[in-house]
Amino acid sequence: MKTKILIATHGKFAEGIQDSLRMITGIQDNIEIVCAYSQQDIDYRDLIKSKVSEHDYSTLNLLVITDLVGGSVNNEFMKYINDYPFYLVAGLNLGLLLELVMRKDDLNEDLIRSCCRNSQNFIVFCNDCLENKEEESDF
């Protein structure tokens, strides 16, 4: 089953990362964003609840990706994780999003876990890369 991806972040991070994604992959019609707390006249708790409760799970999987584990946006989605059959991932970054989008037509729990593990390999303190290169050249 195909998957709808909902990117939900504090402020306009979701908007920015969606823009970067579009630069690389083009328009993605299965992606929606929530820029939480960026407008004062919106009750984001109600918005998040409606995004989860009104999704048609019979036609599309729902994958929610938030920016920060333990953050208020992620915690709002956590309230519904036992009531609705959606996937929730925290720790949004462009590498993770790219991999998930490229595999959106066959995403399942195991594949999402694999994408999360893969994205961890691309968080690197680059100064260590230079030090390792210097050590290798000494041999």
Structural summary, described in words:
This protein is of the alpha/beta class and 139 residues long. It has a single domain (3-137), classed as Rossmann fold, CATH 3.40.50. 45% of the residues lie in helices and 17% in strands. It is built from 6 helices and 4 strands. It has a 4-stranded parallel sheet with strand order 2-1-3-4, with helices on both faces. Strand 3 (61-66), helix 3 and strand 4 (87-90) form a beta-alpha-beta unit. Helix 4 runs antiparallel to helix 5. The longest helix is centred in the first third of the chain and has 13 residues, at 13-25. It is globular. It starts with a strand and ends with a helix. The relative contact order is 0.16. The mean pLDDT is 93.
